[in-house]
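User: I'm curious whether this sequence folds into something compact or stays loose and floppy. Could you predict its structure so I can see for myself?
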Amino acid sequence: MSHPTSSPLSTPPDRNTPRFAANADYGVRSAPGTAKFTPQQLAEFNGTDDSKPVYLALKGVVYNVSSARKMYGPGSGYAVFAGKDASRALGMSSMKPDDCVADYSTLNAEQMETLDKWVAFYQKKYDIVGVMLQQPQVKHTATSISSSRRLFTPEELFQYNGNDPSLPIYIALKGVVYDVTARPDLYAPGGQCAPFAGKDASYAFGKSARGLKNLTSDKVKSDVSELNEEEVKGSIFIPKTLLEALENWVAYYETAYKIVGRMT
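Assistant: Here's the prediction. I'll summarize afterward.
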């Protein structure tokens, strides 16, 4: 299946080859929005009401696809995905309405890879407006930290900063370590988020309420105490504080990336 600029049911774009140069400089188009959706609420944004934007979700993250309304609106080839979490369907390269569900736990390894490529594509192409309240079933990731996962010191985490191609790339937010190897365009040397690879970048991400392009390496630290009282002014997503902006990023990372451990 391709993105809706061509016929359905072909291969999605490779996650390592950005197709949209206008967005390739910062990968994820913007900081996640604050909205939280039930399936019923998401269904209201299915393209049938021209006064509302068109949304769809993948792996619990909600994207605004209104810029491609002609592809997702009623009667179009991709209308089946609008207003739904289409994780299983996109992983299966299926256009069947019955497959447009959030639960992707039955996908095999190849289908999971297909789904992850689609997630990488949507991250680059569309704004994130929020997350689903009812998170999808997860097969290869988890939002909880089990005792069997690795504990990292800052020095140990720094080894996974992308400079050694034989090692995965990790990043930490609020003490939780995520594997972001699937996005070398963002986290490998030269990428927008490369300065944060191998580090707990909680403070920097909280300060980035207006998107990844506002992240600066001088703000890389794990202490987020200063975020509590600082208000966000002029943000289209209107988080009340920078700490809330950080929480939005955490919710996004929990659904988009595999948790591999936590900081000591």
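Summary: Residues 4-30, 137-148, 234-238 have pLDDT under 50 and may be disordered. The helical segments are 39-42, 69-72, 87-92, 109-125, 154-158, 184-187, 202-207, 242-256.
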